[in-house]
UniProtKB/TrEMBL annotation:
Superkingdom of source: Eukaryota
Localisation: Nucleus
Biased composition (Low complexity): 543-558
PROSITE patterns: ZF_BED
A family per Pfam: hAT-like_RNase-H
Span of domain BED-type: 49-106
Composition bias, Polar residues: 31-40
Entry protein name: BED-type domain-containing protein
Amino acid sequence: MADSAPAANSAIQVSLDSNEIPEQIRDKGDSVNNNATGDDNLSPKLKKQKRSHVWSEIIEVEDPKGDKYKCKHCQLFLAKMKIGTTTHLKRHLDHCAKHLESKKKLEDKLKQQQLLLGFESVDTTMPLLLHDGKFCMERMKEAAASWILMHEHPFTLLEEEGFNMFCRRGMPEWTRISRTTGKKSCFAIYEAEKKKLHSLLKNVTKISLTTDLWKSKNQKIEYMVITGHWIDSSWKLNKRVLNFFNIPPPRGGPQISDTLLKCARTWEIENKIYTVSVDNASANDAAIKYMKEDFLKINNNLICEGKLFHVRCCAHILNLIAQDGLDEIKDIIHVIRQSVDFIRRTDARLIQFAEIVKQLKLQERKLVDDCKTRWNSTYERLRTTIAFKEVFPRFKDREPNYVHCPTKSDWEKLLKVFSVLKVFYQATKIISGSEYPITNLFLNEVYRVKLILYEKSCDEEEFIRKMVQKMKEKFDKYWGECNLLMVVGSVLDPRCKMRLLEFTFPKLYNTFESESNTREVQKHLYAIYKEYAVATIENLQGSKSNSESQSSNSSTQNIREQATFSSGRSDSFSRVIDKYRASLAPATVEMLMCGGDWCRKRHGVTKKTKVEDGRNEDTECRLKLG
């Protein structure tokens, strides 16, 4: 027996002088020691790691009658086996309907993402899991051309050494793209996107157009941009630049009308145009008159016999009225522009100005630049500058060359004018919105403008009364007559209905005009309803989608009528083609402007607004306060 003992234990050889004790004996020894001392907490029992894939779908729950498992999908309780097997859990998941449905959705999403790999827009919330790993220079050319179009870069950027060095660092297979090749790629994208947009417009029943004029910086060439607005079957507001035409002189009403009709025929939307919005130039009035006559000849069913066809740009009217107010303080505006430019000319002056701001413990920290042709930009600059009215006199004491310091009376005059212009600024921000419908907000904003003009017409200051009198004349010129389309949009707002007219019309018009305009609005509401009902019945009889017709016919009540209008005076242009495109042929300019808009919509890119000096419109100078 003694000789057999070593043989029995030969499977485990232990050296008492060694610290390398096998795990099997160490565990047993610890168990014996713990039992001997009566302390079970000195060496807790290690849990076995869960490696099965079922644990991502099954959770363990505690139960008074014994622990159980629970399915995350169908919430079914499953028994917990003492031996720890997961076979019954796998069997349940293979037959769980909700688990199988969730698994199929994930597989479909992954499959769809594989098809969209490349430069197409994909779901950014889901990472790119698969890629073939192959470099394709043709797809890189397409991506570079889309980049040029979206961000309005010059073609020569593709030939710059720094850009090509950057690309070769990450992609050794990259080859240099010439500006000629880049231009051809941009034209290819333009033609492809144009076909897509043409197919999209075939499913649109009604569309509204807006126009704007551009000029070339280095050439005596003027362009007209035409933008289309419509609501799709998903009730989403859509906006696309349709054409960017060169208009040769003379640029009168017939020429503008011919250009609009050319656009309509190009996109095959002659019988779909609902309204056309233009600014208040006399040539535009003549153009709309010619268009209306031509559309009636080609059997275009204009709503209410064309009485709602012509829409005047509301933001442009507000701009014209506000410009009369700024004219009263144009000398003060000039002094403030000179002052800010003088301070920003050198860092030393800017630091000195910032030190005074710090001493006075002012909260404002920026001097804002402005665009002279946009009154709201000038208003924003003056508003931020007013916060530093106590700083300018102190800066004058420290800077002997500073001679354009506004006086105390200038600031007082400016503040009084601002009390009037503030209402115009707020109304312009609301009416100029592009991502939400504004037709139903029009009447309320016009009422607020009328109210402030009436209130300030009795102001104690003579220059305020004189300023308001000029603004009232301009207001009555454009809004003395009832704007039927905008009023209809306000009435169709379920929060307002006809009660809004009962409240605002007596304050906007005299008693006779108020009652007459109310009857006219009711008459057109019935006419719109009748035409809508007839169109709906025809669509149902023709087995067409009622929802599509409903959304398209409602576009005129919901669409933003003003999109890209000149924000300056009627005889000036705020839209200027930059220096990179000013020397290009008109066909190339149209490709860049339209293709850029279509690519930005496709990839969800927002365009930054630029001003004439090449800086962003919201350019500002942050004061360096230590």
